[in-house]
Write a structure and sequence with these properties.
Helix content: 55-70%
Number of helices: 24
Number of strands: 7
Strand order of the largest sheet: 4-3-5-7-6
Mean pLDDT: 92
Structural class: mainly alpha
Shape: elongated
Length: 565
Amino acid sequence: MSADTMAARTTEPVEPPKTTANLSRRWAAVLAVVVPTLVTCVHALGYGRWLVDDAGITFAYARSVAQGNGPVLQPGATAVEGYSDPAWLGVLTVGRWLGLFDHGAWFGIPDYVLFPKGIALLCCIGVFVALYRTAAAVTERPALVAGVAGVITALVPSFVIWCFSGLENSLLALAVVSLASVLVRAAASGTLARPGVAIACGALAALAALTRPDGALYAAAYPLVALLFVTRPALRRTLWVVPLSVVTFLIPWGAYLAWRIAEFDAVVPNTALAKGQSAPTVDSIRKAVDLASYLGWPLVLVAVVCLGAALARPSRTRTGLVALLVPLVLAIIGFSVLLQDWMPQYRFATPVWPLAALATSIAAAHLLPQLAVRGRAALAVLTAIACTLAGISWWQNYDEFSTGPTVPLCVVVQQAQEYDGYARIMGVRDATVLLPDIGGTALAGNLRVADVAGLADKRIAQFWSDEDMAGLRDYVFTELQPAVIHIHGSWANATGLLDDPRMQTDYLRLRWTSATGANLVRRDLIPNPAVQDELIKFARHSATVQAQLGPQRTRSCGDVLRPEA
């Protein structure tokens, strides 16, 4: 070999080893997950240790199941499916069996706070991993696309609030986004007709359905996507794998349905009966519009433009987007058909946010390289303005909720101790308290809980389903006859309990808890005027103590939540 040849070879550019490129991609993938996770953590910390009282309902059921008392709100109570999240209940029950939940504190943080929030964080990490895997199937820069989609998701107050509320939202988001990821990757690679894909989609849809009843809608995701992309050569195979996915869904979902019928003698959860869930109406469309308003119309307009452009021409990106839009539309439908939720921040919309953010990010990444410099600049400016306006709105939502979160579990626990005090002063044992906030009361109170909302009370749920408030009042005053009643807000207005003449004759109002709320005790359980004076004094003291909890609504309330001995 001549010296000239050797010199020429030494001056040729040397390609970097492939391992270096792979390492860079891996680090980019890690950052695409880590950055949104950090944003989520910082965002969630703003809500402190807040848990919503409704989460306490499932906590109480998990305790009963783990202790061998069966699916009951309290030991000795009638078995009623007062929860609507059996998969989340299973997670909490396993956590209690392992000593990770409902036992004490870890590093100064009660495990009833740390465990559900820790599981929520793991689910969010799973969501961000699924976002990356989805983007990797249809874009050239998956880390950037997934990172942007993940950060947007982590900034949406609705997503973070309800994922870290103690409820099942994070698990549902993981199931739905993972389902969407499987669909997109299979559609992009032309493997939708594979049995493994059908089984995975059916299993993830079953997880969604067992996490929340409206999750059953996602059983339609795989059949819809498979039929959208079916080709003549794969027609026979598609017609075989679609039923396979459905059967995979039906096995666990049907098994739970059979158990529900055998255990509770009901086809639907008692929560659905109490809420009077009905068929969707034209007004359901308005709820979908509300989601757009929450995001901000300028941002929605940018998203629609990007999606429209990306769907206009055949491409791998369009294929992936079509597959992604199916679960997104199902998520919006699921939110829209449910009855209007009294809680703020769109509790039932959790899967919508990551799916919408991912679809928009993929579409924008596809559109930008096709635009001229002016077009890119215009889109960038419009996007910046839209994001700024959305960010202002989200900050306002964050600030409002962080200073006044919805029905904190620990506030209800404090109130439960007041009801226990009433019974103790009256010398009443085995007493019942009627109230709408039952989570903290069941976890930490000594009194038997009667749920005026009907979630964990089959008899009262039927009154709500029949819209028979007169029957509900008759039942309360003639049969149930609770020793203590706490009623407030819409529950007081809807039931008419406070306005019923029997409330005035049979019960003594100890104090108003709000403009439409009061604490009352049965007059015939007060043995003498001295006890009555003591009750009123105790009620005033309790009011003072609870008023001091105002600035502490995002704090926990002790290492364990147990009824006092």
